[in-house]
Design goal:
The longest helix has 20 residues. This protein has 6 helices and 10 strands. Strands 1-6-7-5 form a 4-stranded antiparallel sheet. A 4-stranded antiparallel sheet has the order 2-3-4-8. The structure holds zinc ion. Zinc ion binds next to loops.
């Protein structure tokens, strides 16, 4: 599943390749990935120029300006297996559901499980469709995040995945953040002092920034917009490494289930705090 760094990279690529270009074609093979009908989507966007882009968590909002000067916004949520390709000579397969044409530059939306959505929204930053999405994990202020986390009484890993608290972390970077902070995934935030909680946030931001620089992590079907794998996987400390030795202390990494998700941690480096 693409997480914040992968989505950030998609957003940067879209802006770099398409900013200032007009949407001149919208081909729809499977309307189910659109939030509105193809007709409504075309009417809103055809002829409009891509001016900007906003990302919060794993959501992108493309900002358009129509010929009459009014704005239009398209929210992109890749969900499980959504991918965007901006490639010369890309040959679409049966999983490509939408092709957006920007004055001769085609953008392919591919989604094997079809859970992703391209939805027209009424606002470029705070649309109603994102009311349930918390602040972005990369830019959330520590004070705000602490208010949302402190005193919570279930395992911290679940709260890191909760997009309503802060948006952007998925299973990969949640496990990595907890390892780097030395916090056991079953720890309850109410049992952590403020310093340790702040450390978890700092480590989460660090691992996200590092992953963005490395083009994200390649897993399952995810490759980046150029069809290349991200190369962050070899930097991962715990995710996908259950049964292998911890890179810091050689202890065998363990896998448990937390909040319904497979969770890998080091029993030595990530201790449950006393009490
Ligand atoms: Zn260790």
């Amino acid at each position: 599943m693409p997480e914040l760094p992968e989505v950030e990279n998609v957003g940067r690529a879209l802006l770099e390749s398409l900013q200032g270009r007009r949407l001149t074609g919208l081909e729809v093979m499977f309307p189910g990935v659109l939030g509105q009908s193809p007709r409504v989507t075309r009417r809103a966007l055809l002829g409009a120029r891509l001016t900007d882009l906003h990302r919060r968590g794993k959501y992108l909002i493309l900002h358009f300006r129509r010929p009459d000067g009014t704005p239009a916004y398209l929210m992109v949520h890749l969900r499980m297996t959504g991918q965007i390709f901006i490639l010369d000579g890309y040959i679409p397969d049966k999983h490509v559901h939408v092709v957006l044409d920007f004055e001769g530059v085609p953008v392919h939306y591919r989604d094997i499980r079809k859970f992703g959505r391209l939805t027209l929204v009424e606002d470029g930053r705070e649309p109603a469709a994102m009311a349930h999405v918390g602040p972005d994990m990369l830019t959330v202020k520590p004070r705000e995040w602490l208010e949302r986390m402190a005193r919570r009484r279930a395992p911290i890993k679940g709260y890191l995945l909760d997009q309503g608290i802060a948006s952007g972390l998925g299973n990969i970077y949640a496990d990595e953040s907890l390892f780097l902070a030395g916090v056991h995934p079953l720890t309850r935030p109410c049992d952590l002092d403020e310093t340790t909680l702040r450390l978890v946030l700092r480590r989460a931001k660090q691992v996200l920034r590092l992953a963005i620089r490395h083009g994200g992590t390649t897993f399952m079907n995810f490759t980046n917009f150029r069809g290349k794998p991200g190369n962050f996987r070899r930097k991962l400390r715990v995710y996908g490494r259950a049964g292998q030795p911890c890179r810091d202390c050689d202890t065998t990494l363990k896998k448990i289930t937390v909040a319904g998700r497979g969770t890998v941690f080091c029993p030595e480096c990530q201790r449950v705090p006393a009490g």
